[in-house]
Amino acid sequence: MTEQFEFTTNKEQTDHEAVSINGDTSVFGEDVRADAKQIIARYPESRSALLPMLHLVQSVQGCVSAEGIQFCAEQLALSTAEVSAVATFYTMYKRRPCGQHLVSVCTNTMCAALGGDEIYRKVGEHLGVGHDETAGTPGEEGSITLEHAECLAACDLAPVLQVNYEYYDNQTPEQALELVKALQRGEKPAPTRGPALSDFRGAERQLAGFFDDLESTVAGTSAAVETVRGAQLANERGWTAPSMPDDVEMPPLPEKK
Ligand code: FES
């Protein structure tokens, strides 16, 4: 496990009743508990709500803390071992408090070859931090957590980086550096596509499924010209994929537990 999560996965911890992770869940107030109820109500089985619940706790604390693990376990009737197993598997769940902004630089093959490695090096040098480290005090304005990311599914726009999961396409090291400096000054430069830039905790709230200002969230450009070029070509040439028959028998929905 990690230095922050002071728990183990011994046999006792698989028993929900016996779990003790020493997390004080009072940090999650009535409003957060009401949000949790809304999330849980979306699913036939409460345990299916774990992923958005972890995003909800990150929207409060900027990471998944021991309290966050305990809170999710209590709300979903899971063991803390079960919750921590999920929280430590996905890189989007942060174990240390994140900065105001999370900057993810793609260093996978296409981006790396087109300058992603250089972007990561220059930004890291400027911030004085490495992977998964924060420049500034986490949560305070201008603080930035840097990470290198695997393919961000935008190879046609390489090299790319994301700030709080919003895209900045076709970056040069100089542009990336200017972007990071602007973030440090408290500015929020517009992403290439998608909604206006928020901050890490705001993005986490959206990932939990709460869009407090839906209109502005969907107002930005949603697709790049490069990305839709294939669909346009197919359209022009009359290419189609077989459609799904109308009479496919769907499996029954599970009962709500
Ligand atoms: S390699 Fe960077 S987006 Fe795919």
UniProtKB/TrEMBL annotation:
Cofactor stoichiometry and binding remark: Binds 1 [2Fe-2S] cluster.
Cofactor section: [2Fe-2S] cluster
Iron-sulfur listed as a keyword: yes
UniProt KW keywords: 2Fe-2S, Iron, Iron-sulfur, Metal-binding
Lineage top rank: taxon: Bacteria
GO molecular function list: 2 iron, 2 sulfur cluster binding; metal ion binding; NADH dehydrogenase activity
InterPro entries in UniProt: NuoE-like (IPR002023), NuoE_dom (IPR042128), NuoE_N (IPR041921), Thioredoxin-like_sf (IPR036249)
Region feature (Disordered): 234-257
Positions that bind [2Fe-2S] cluster: C106, C111, C151, C155
UniProt entry tagged with the keyword DNA damage: no
Listed transmembrane segments: none
NCBIfam families: PRK07539.1-1
UniProt record similarity statement: Belongs to the complex I 24 kDa subunit family.
Protein name, as recorded: NADH dehydrogenase subunit E
UniProt organism field: Saccharopolyspora spinosa
